[in-house]
Design brief:
Strand content: 25-35%
Helix content: 10-25%
Radius of gyration: 23 Å
Structural class: alpha+beta
Strand order of the largest sheet: 2-1-7-8-9-6-3
Distance between the termini: 84 Å
């Protein structure tokens, strides 16, 4: 007698605590992602969504950013300079079908819960409201990031107009694991990292992305000896302090000004 093969099911899971314990969460999600039975998903709530139908394909993209330099003497144009590497993006289409569900489930509510993960998470820090960290798991494949877009196309409706079937195109931006701070015994400043300024970037934008507070641009400018923060050329590599060091430097600056 042949043994039936267990079909692994894809799922999306919200990371608890804004992404803490990613390794353990991956293991737990992968262990519970298989074998979703019945017409209605076993779990589809504000923290976990199981797909009854697996995506037919996954799309992974990776980009690199280059900043051009002006060269009026050359007909070939300026020489491109590498600025930084972009994060990966994941795209897939989820098929939701509850037409034959015993209780006549409304896929509109399922789509709304999924789209809600594009909104700022109430559990995120007050000084940096942002969507929750989400993990896509399908068997041995996993991808951790934040939802960039959720576009639903409703295709089948009941007599009362409630949608019973939909195709949902989902796009995610990867959130790479945070690098460990420099070992204090190595003599390097703890928590510092380097970032490359790209076209249309600013120290204010960099301070907001890295430290959660655009007003900390002055700390970055002072650390890098930048006199004019409005004219930092693309391709410039700057040091960014840890959030704790930046906050301490700002307190010292305010204290000296009094």
């Amino acid at each position: 007698m042949s043994i039936p093969m267990k079909l692994e099911k894809a799922k999306l899971a919200k990371m608890a605590g804004g992404g803490g314990g990613i390794g353990a969460a991956i293991g737990g999600a992968a262990a519970s992602a298989g074998g979703v039975g019945g017409m209605v998903p076993v779990v589809w709530n504000d923290s976990e969504m199981n797909f009854r139908f697996n995506p037919t394909q996954l799309t992974l993209n990776k980009t690199a950013t280059y900043g051009g330099t002006n060269n009026r003497e050359s007909e070939a144009g300026g020489q491109e300079q590498f600025a930084n590497t972009g994060t990966r993006t994941l795209g897939f289409t989820a098929f939701l079908d509850e037409w034959e569900a015993p209780q006549g489930a409304d896929v509109g509510g399922m789509v709304a819960k999924l789209q809600n993960w594009c909104n700022p998470d109430p559990d995120s820090p007050e000084n940096r409201r942002e969507p929750p960290l989400v993990m896509f798991v399908w068997g041995k494949f996993n991808f951790t990031g934040k939802l960039a877009s959720v576009n639903a196309t409703f295709e089948l409706f009941r007599k009362d107009g409630t949608p019973a079937r939909a195709e949902v195109a989902v796009s995610m931006n990867e959130r790479p694991p945070e690098t460990s701070p420099t070992n204090p015994t190595s003599g390097g400043p703890t928590g510092r990292r380097s970032r490359t300024i790209v076209e249309s970037d600013s120290l204010q934008g960099l301070a907001y992305r890295e430290l959660g507070d655009a007003n900390l641009w002055r700390v970055i400018a002072e650390m890098n000896g930048i006199d004019d923060p409005m004219s930092v050329p693309a391709g410039t590599v700057v040091l960014v302090p840890s959030a704790a060091d930046a906050a301490k430097a700002r307190r010292l600056t305010r204290g000296a000004a009094r």
